[in-house]
Specification:
Blueprint lengths: L3 E6 L3 H14 L3 E7 L2 H11 L3 E4 L11 H4 L6 E6 L5 H6 L4 E4 L4 H32 L6 E5 L4 E5 L3 E7 L2 E6 L4 E4 L3 H8 L4 E5 L2 E4 L3 E5 L5 E4 L4 E3 L2 H14 L1
Parallel strand pairs: 1-2, 1-3, 3-4, 4-5
Antiparallel strand pairs: 6-7, 8-9, 8-12, 9-10, 11-12, 13-14, 14-15
């Protein structure tokens, strides 16, 4: 994962330098792209650097840290409040703070907080990738065809007509809407790579499915799904979380 683009906002230079030193030494995943000593300066730095994470002091002259959220309409970064006063905690979490660190900063707590942000960003990136995939399959520009090798030659089929694919050693069985079935001499891994941009998802080491043909998900340890051809397919526990995120985006 890329380093977390971050800025530090604090009116006290000594506090900023302490936090910057801790981040540099103990949090290598953080990349400092800017600093500010007031809310107004922070607004400018955020506009210039587009940070993913803002370490924000609360008690500053002229305007406290919470005023930052009144000046930025599109909050697309995570916030960690850093302050010497614990009475602001409730207000901080009302502003969806990732964490609330009290000064003097405890290094172990800082590392835990950065790790939490790293995981949030990783999940956010996955969701964005899945969202792009789902947008693609919901509004296809054209129906895509793939070539399937047979004894007679190549057969071209529309990918939207494929309900599911099932591994059979070095072969793969393809099941189409209407009940048609074909077996071809390609592995399931080959089709997983070939069809990944067409809305096909691996849910099990034996099963690759077309999201367009999912009818129902039944909860369980891994759970299982019902396809449009009324087939029931198991979702492996290892694939469950990713599959559920996709299904939620389809709702």
């Amino acid at each position: 994962m890329n380093r977390i683009k971050s800025i530090v906002v604090d009116d006290e230079q000594e506090s900023r330098e302490t936090l910057l030193r801790f981040l540099s030494k103990y949090c290598p995943d953080v990349e400092i792209v800017g600093q500010a000593d007031s809310v107004n300066e922070a607004v400018e730095v955020i506009r210039e650097t587009s940070p993913e994470l803002v370490f924000l002091d609360v008690n500053m002259p002229v305007e406290n840290g919470f005023k930052l959220f009144d000046k930025i309409s599109d909050i697309n970064f995570y916030t960690v409040f850093v302050t010497a006063y614990d009475q602001y905690a409730v207000e901080a979490f009302k502003h969806h703070a990732v964490d609330y660190l009290l000064k003097p900063i405890v290094i172990h707590e800082l590392m835990i907080t950065v790790n939490r942000v790293s995981k949030l960003l990783e999940d956010k990136n996955k969701i964005q990738q899945l969202s792009a995939l789902l947008q693609h399959i919901k509004t296809p520009v054209e129906q895509t065809k793939i070539a399937l090798p047979t004894l007679e030659g190549l057969v071209y089929v529309h990918t939207i007509d494929i309900v599911r694919l099932q591994a059979d050693d070095n072969y793969t069985s393809l099941y189409f809407k209407g009940g048609k079935k074909m077996m071809v001499s390609h592995t399931l891994a080959y089709f997983e790579e070939t069809l990944k941009e067409q809305g096909f998802v691996r849910i099990h080491h034996q099963h690759l499915i077309n999201l367009q043909h999912v009818e129902k998900y039944i909860r369980g340890r891994g759970g299982y799904i019902i396809m449009s051809d009324e087939t029931s397919l198991q979702v492996s526990q290892r694939k469950k979380d990713e599959f559920l995120r996709i299904i939620k985006r389809l709702k």
